Please model this.
Amino acid sequence: MTELTKNLTLAEIVNTHPSLARQLERRNLDYCCGGATTLEEACATNGLDVTTVLGELSDAATDEPTGTWSTMGLVQLVDHLEATHHGYLWSELPRLSALIDKVFTVHGERHPELGEIRDCFATIRADLEPHLTKEERVLFPMVRQLATADSETSLHCGSIQNPISVMLAEHDTVGELLRRLRALCNDYVPPTDGCGSYVAVFAGFETMEADTHLHIHKENNLLFPEVVEVERRLAS
Model:
């Protein structure tokens, strides 16, 4: 098991100890969009004592295998992203939309904050679905093209870095929206008078947040840097 130290980046911690992703999330330590930040830097930014956090993470760590995604080739990784995270979102986003609409209809009068929650989730879905489509139809085919090339390859967008820069900006946007959704949902703790559907939609939001964080981590900290390096090597 890789020893945890304060100098490891948040991305390295999740790659070597996948189960610690939830521990980082509970402490508001952003391992997806902020994956290049060391644990020490992230704790300082969030007003946390790094020695305390490091001890808590070490206590929670288990002797587990490294995340399988961290050793995948580019083609295998984009196939994994589509099958695992894209497939999940294409199925789950419509289900959660229907569920939050139902909860708002039943509980909206007593809990007017549900209107903001419903609108925030609608914005997340409106951002994520076109994002998934662009990755599947534009970016991922280019990744596969570069990964299987043996010489410099011409892309219609010029460089792979151009669509990647768009994806990175959209990742930042959805990260902010997920933070807003969590705040609106009181850290996904339902009210005492919430029905089963109320509990279920909050649980669904929290699971979606965790899955999307891991999804973005795999792209920002693994896929994107590796494919940029492949393009650079082919051009040299």
Remarks:
- The chain has a mean pLDDT of 93.
